[in-house]
Amino acid sequence: xxxxxxxxxxxxxxxxxxxxxxxxxxxxxxxxxxxxxxxxxxxxxxxxxxxxxxxxxxxxxxxxxxxxxxxxxxxxxxxxxxxxxxxxxxxxxxxxxxxxxxxxxxxxxxxxxxxxxxxxxxxxxxxxxxxxxxxxxxxxxxxxxxxxxxxxxxxxxxxxxxxxxxxxxxxxxxxxxxxxxxxxxxxxxxxxxxxx
Length: 196
Hints:
This protein is α+β, with helices and mostly antiparallel strands and about 200 residues long. The protein has helices spanning about 5-20, 70-85, 120-145, 170-185; strands at about 25-30, 35-40, 55-60, 90-95, 105-110. The termini are far apart.
């Protein structure tokens, strides 16, 4: 068993144990700067959460150093958008504790499709991009036409200390988040230089 398969197997075992269900299919969809993403199915209803059996699901595990609040914010926003009728994957479970899988994670519905540039030739990728551009533009326009009150942060997640207050402009919240990450990073090159 290679190291990637061993990691997948370990995550699969931890997830099955946490959910109290047998995982019938498990594979890696991808890894990125902020998340590791897996596709899986459970063979029977879960004892721990209301997750459908025998349907494709996604496990999104946030990278170490990502605050649980970020995962909570994403899950919460997806629920609000789904309730408003916007086409997003249904989030089934959010777990902020590091105990089950070592990092915060979310389980959500697996949407049909594949990554845009997961094609073997550039012409195929361009053809798919051209074909998908109008639906993408429509979905983007629909998102921007939603009433901002739909996703106002008036619940218990609003007090996210790592992202500034809910009334702060997005840029201010992003700068606050970046500053907090720099403080937690051991790299001295990201901190202000001392003169003198």
